[in-house]
Amino acid sequence: MSPLIVVSILPAVHGPLSGLVKALGAMLPALHGPVIPALACLAAAALLLLLEAREGAGAMEVASLLVLLPLAGVVATAPHVEAAWPALAVALVVAVLARHREDLLHSECGIKLLWVMGAALALSWGGLELLAISTGTRALAEQWAVLRLDLESSIGWSTALSLSLLVGVVMLGGAPFHFWPADLFQGARPWLAPLAVAGIQVCGAGWLLSRVDGIEQFPTGQRIVYSLLGTAAWVALVAGGVTLMVQRRPERRVGTLASLNGALMLASLAAPHRGAMGAGARDIPLALWAGHLALALAGAATLSRFAAVSAGSPSAGPVLFRRHPWSGILGLYAFFSLAAVPGTPGARLWLGVARDLVSAGRVGLLLALAVAWLAAFGAAIRQLREAFGVVTPAAPPGRPVAWQPRAAMWLTGAVLVWMALSGIAGTSQ
Fold first, then answer.
1. Element of type H or E holding 364
2. CA separation (Å) from 101 to 49, 51, 53, 93?
3. In terms of Cα–Cα distance, which of 382, 359, 147 is closest to 257?
4. Farthest-apart Cα atoms in the chain, separation
5. pLDDT tens for residues 53-64?
6. What is the DSSP string of 215-256?
7. 241 with 370: CB under 8 angstroms?
8. Mean pLDDT of 381-403
9. 323 or 315, greater pLDDT
10. Taking a C-beta distance cutoff of 8 angstroms, is the pair 222, 215 a contact?
11. CA distance linking residue 132 with residue 153, whole number of Å
């Protein structure tokens, strides 16, 4: 890269990068929340990159691990998401996808991500400008104070408020934009997809939390936001659950489960309590949600590369489960946690949101959450049945699965088990 280009872009990225470094520095001393899961996810990506290096990838391909550092930093520093991070995260992922020009699936994923996220960002930025024009200020607290005076028609500011939330819904994978995580898991490299999806979704959740900060000062706007987020969550949960029922490819199942976990965050934000908009997110902390999401996606995505596409008739299990069943079981545990199977950290998150919905009286949203959970549980059982297959007299294949993906599944599975046990211990105290 030309030094002139580097010098020219430094002023544009200095502010967001300095914010990332400060937030990371604030989180590292505690070494809790999403920091350990983000580091484990980064280590799993490094292991998968080692596998590509062994299969003939160049040194520049292995150096791609540096690209994942900002995405892991976004997960590790949640919920401290700066306003510029969503655009930077999308630009980074699209740039990495565009680098592999000979890979048609990479190019297709990059193009889809660019037009979906680019349009959503443009509309949300337009909504922010309309809000600034309507209120005469860019400070959120001042905007709510001005709007509370009810000096003009609600059509203008309500439209602007709706548009400003759009990119958060899209980044979380809410329907009808729930296709992009599944496309990314199917088309992108296995070391890139988990952190890319998790980083973008965490940015989307952070955007929504930052945009509704202090809106309880403006009750009319608060009611509109609750209604918008509730509708978006209901559609995302139902559409995601229906989509999951018909998925045949394991990679796309993982992507659809990622979008359902994004819908879970939308449902949490739509069910606040104690009168504060951010209160609904405190029972499902963004930090815990982000760490679990990245870790479960890393383990489940690695497993999906060795799982077979659903067939009409029963067949023998894939090589991973016939040669290395314990590695496969830990990969399945990550998949189960993503699907909120009881006994996993993911189930605790879904149960917390269900309790919030009951407290808030959101019965329709609670029913949609139940439909999505039943679909996710069914997908997990189907994946379990296909993983072990039917008993066959044939000997297992002679060639074993490489140690790098098995180590990645052991790593992510072990940290998820630690999260589950620490959660049980915290509940019993």
1. helix 363-388
2. 18, 21, 19, 14
3. 382
4. 78
5. 665 555 556 667
6. GGGSHHHHHHHHHHHHHHHHHHHHHHHHHHHT--SHHHHHHH
7. no
8. 75
9. 323
10. yes
11. 15
Angle at 71 between CA 306 and CA 4, to 5 degrees: 125
pLDDT of the residue at 16: 52
Q: Are 409 and 335 in contact (CB under 8 A)?
A: no
389: buried, middle or exposed (CB in 10 Å: 19+, 13-18, 0-12)? middle
Label residue 173 exposed, middle or buried (CB < 10 Å: 0-12, 13-18, 19+): buried
Buried b (16+ CB within 10 A) or exposed e, 111-127: ebbbebbeebbebbeeb
Q: Regarding predicted confidence, which is higher, 365 or 23? A: 365
- Say if CB 170 and CB 231 are below 8 A apart: no
Lowest mean pLDDT among 23-37, 49-63, 196-210, 237-251: 23-37
Separation CA 281–CA 338 (nearest Å):
19
Q: Whole-angstrom Cα distance, residue 386 to residue 323? A: 15
